């Protein structure tokens, strides 16, 4: 390991504190974030990524310079920006999961810090308020960079307003997406375990959803999804994580919620969804929407996360086997 790389590894937290987008973090948050970066040294002329590449990592410059360019229709390249110490780049791939919009190459020997999207979303789960501040600062800086490149400006305005939301939510329903659920459920479970508090996982399927699509069309299925999402929000707490896990599959993570409270709220959802008029008057055999729900609670039904999710899934299967349109608790 080079002397510069070793020095950075030993003192990374202090360096991050001087970087504008991380300056609001406290010592504990800086230490956690520092552990998430990988340190890489590159010689001059090293291409870090090319326009159109898939990307899942953003970069921060510790030393050196990096130039970003795009290809023009006439085959020439346009230099957009040069990044130096404390600058970041490649962030759009984290928020958008989109191909790289430019090519980035080191202009001189450089030391860079790489932050993978999975590490960033783990940090978001652990320190949501601080992570959101970081994201907004990054968005503001990114938007400012693009003010001088009019061909990208209209797309950037639209992206900048909703990138953070789209990164963690399902576009149709506004509920969290599967990626955010998978990234956050472990932290929620460990917090419940450390603090000795209950936590309940509820798994929800819409009954006969495939038959609804076949009878009335995909648009009707979308109408059903859009109708049930507000019902879920109405009966769950603001601190709960409500996620659309698949097409008609949903998972709720409910901190500080025991089995009895979860059963009460899940049953209210079941009754409310049953009364939705979204399928009324369509002239088919299926005239109402219903749900099957299975739930399991920590520590009552399981003492590890894998088992907790399995018990909730088994309860969901039991609810379907018993005739659907019901809630079943594990065990």
Structure overview:
The protein contains 12 helices and 13 strands. Helices cover 46% and strands 22% of the residues. The chain folds into 2 domains: 3-167, Jelly Rolls (Sandwich), CATH 2.60.120; 178-329, 2-Layer Sandwich (Alpha-Beta Plaits). It is globular, with a radius of gyration of 24 Å. The protein has a 5-stranded mixed β-sheet, sandwiched between helices. A 4-stranded antiparallel β-sheet has the order 1-8-3-6. It is an alpha+beta fold and 331 residues long.
Short description:
The protein is of the alpha+beta class and 331 residues long. The protein has twelve helices and 13 strands.
Low-confidence stretches: 150-161
Beta-strand percent range = 15-25%
Number of helices: 12
CATH class of the largest domain: Mainly Beta
Task: Give the rounded overall mean pLDDT.
Answer: 87
- Helix-strand category: alpha+beta
CA radius of gyration: 24 Å
Largest sheet: 5 strands, mixed
Number of domains: 2
What form results from the Cα inertia axes? globular
Element layout with pairings:
Elements: H1 3-10, H2 12-18, H3 27-34, E1 38-42, E2 47-49, E3 57-63, E4 66-71, E5 77-83, E6 88-89, H4 92-96, E7 103-106, E8 110-116, H5 117-126, H6 128-145, H7 150-168, H8 178-195, E9 199-206, H9 209-216, H10 218-235, E10 241-244, E11 249-255, H11 259-274, E12 291-298, H12 305-321, E13 326-329
Parallel strand pairs: 12-13
Antiparallel strand pairs: 1-8, 2-7, 3-6, 3-8, 4-5, 4-7, 9-11, 9-12, 10-11
Helix pairs in contact: 2-3, 5-6, 5-8, 6-7, 9-10, 10-11
